[in-house]
Design goal:
Elements (H helix, E strand, L loop, with lengths): L1 E3 L1 H6 L5 E5 L3 H4 L8 E2 L9 H4 L6 E5 L4 H4 L13 E4 L2 H9 L3 H16 L3 H14 L8 E5 L4 H15 L6 E8 L4 H14 L3 E5 L2 H5 L6 H19 L4 E3 L4 H15 L8 E3 L7 E3 L7 H10 L25 H15 L5 H8 L10 E4 L2 E4 L5
Parallel strand pairs: 1-5, 2-3, 2-4, 4-5, 6-7, 6-9, 7-8, 9-11
Antiparallel strand pairs: 10-11, 12-13
Helix pairs in contact: 5-9, 12-14, 12-15
């Protein structure tokens, strides 16, 4: 299929073409090009929306980085006689084009920081600071490696760390760490562009994790996530850090609790902080623990920011890898289940969260402590 750049597309009259986003809902939830319609790549040949587009309009397909759209067969029957194009660099190319001039970057940084200090202070900074205080995540003398994947969560976390450091209530140091496990060129450029636009001084190091798990058939996402964790600990220790910070938020926590019960047959949660078992003296902290995903999205959209959703090179439609090994479909399914339950119970999210704060061991048949199982009959 012929390719067209976003710069070339902008020169065309807006009514001369239609944009068609062929990504799955796990990716489109993180943003689409304005005016685009969403038709998943596997449904293109039977889509009534495409058939209803007037024949004189150009069809411009795009995916995440331009690979899948480039491979669409424009000789297929449903596209016969149509003028079709693949958007070069896909959605990532569109995002990069929106972060162009130095002047634009300065304005973006200023607006993003002011929105944290004012408009979204209650929704973002307050729960961030509360989690840091309640769970003792930041302590005097800490050197924290803020681990940035390129997504909305870790980028916001970096800005919140900059803001709390500005308050100077605790003396600590920060290193903004980005690991390149084998990103596509477009994905790495997007991370670099967004970091520059937001004034985050990132340090990038490379690894070969994607290549290492490329041949793994069973649960490659779980292995990838565990390996990335190890690399981050190791590099953070090289920089003299005693903690690594990850961008998991409140919604990740409650989804993990529910998925553990539904898919794992266990009651467990994502902890706000953990001691590393393999790197002595190192801790993992999650300062977004009390921050809602909807508020992160609102901040992102208010500032017209577009972040990396997934940098996995196995597929353009894979959503962010999770340390628990759950697939994107399971997490999305759980997210939808919680949203459905909320329709009749507005407190369902907070109740799920509180459930692991209010465990009554006297009513539990069996539990594990330090790897040892304890049955209620032991003390009956």
């Amino acid at each position: 299929m012929k390719e067209i750049t976003y710069a070339e597309l902008k020169k065309l009259p807006k009514d001369s073409y239609r944009l068609i986003d062929i990504r799955d809902e796990g990716l489109t939830a993180y943003g689409m090009i304005p005016g685009a319609i969403n038709v998943f790549v596997e449904d293109l040949d039977k889509s009534s929306e495409i058939k209803d587009i007037p024949a004189d309009k150009k069809l411009v397909f795009y995916c995440e980085i331009g690979r899948m759209s480039r491979e669409i067969d424009d000789t297929a029957e449903y596209l016969e006689g149509r003028d079709c194009y693949s958007l070069e660099k896909g959605y990532v190319g569109y995002v990069q084009a929106s972060i162009s001039s130095e002047e634009d970057r300065v304005e973006r940084q200023k607006k993003a920081e002011e929105s944290i200090q004012k408009k979204f202070h209650k929704q973002l900074f307050s729960p961030f600071a509360r989690a840091c205080k309640n769970y003792k995540l930041i302590e005097d003398g800490d050197h924290i490696a803020v681990c940035i994947s390129g997504g909305k969560d870790s980028m916001l976390m970096a800005k919140l760390f900059q803001e709390i450091k500005r308050h100077r209530q605790v003396n600590f140091d920060l290193t903004f760490l980005v690991m390149d496990p084998g990103y596509n060129k477009e994905n790495r450029e997007l991370i670099e562009s967004n970091a520059a636009a937001l004034g985050i001084p990132i340090t990038i190091f490379e690894s070969t994790i994607f290549d290492a798990v490329d041949t793994i058939d069973k649960n490659p996402c779980y292995l990838c996530a565990r390996m990335r964790r190890g690399y981050l600990y190791s590099k953070a220790k090289e920089f003299g850090c005693n903690k690594i910070a990850l961008g998991h938020h409140y919604d990740d926590v409650i989804e993990t609790i529910l998925m553990g019960m539904i898919h794992g047959g266990q009651v467990q949660t994502m902890m706000p902080k953990l001691h590393s078992t393999n790197f002595e003296g190192m801790e993992l902290i999650r300062p977004l623990y009390l921050v809602r995903e909807a508020d992160i999205c609102a901040w992102r959209d208010y500032n017209e920011l577009h972040f990396l959703q997934c940098a996995c090179h196995f597929t353009d439609t894979c959503t962010t890898c999770h340390e628990d090994g759950t697939t994107s479909s399971k997490r999305l399914e759980t997210k939808k289940l919680i949203a459905e339950l909320k329709k009749t119970n507005p407190f369902v999210e907070s109740n799920i969260f509180k459930s692991v704060e209010n465990v009554n061991v006297d009513t539990v048949i069996e539990y594990k402590k330090n790897g040892i199982r304890h049955n209620f009959l032991d003390e009956y």
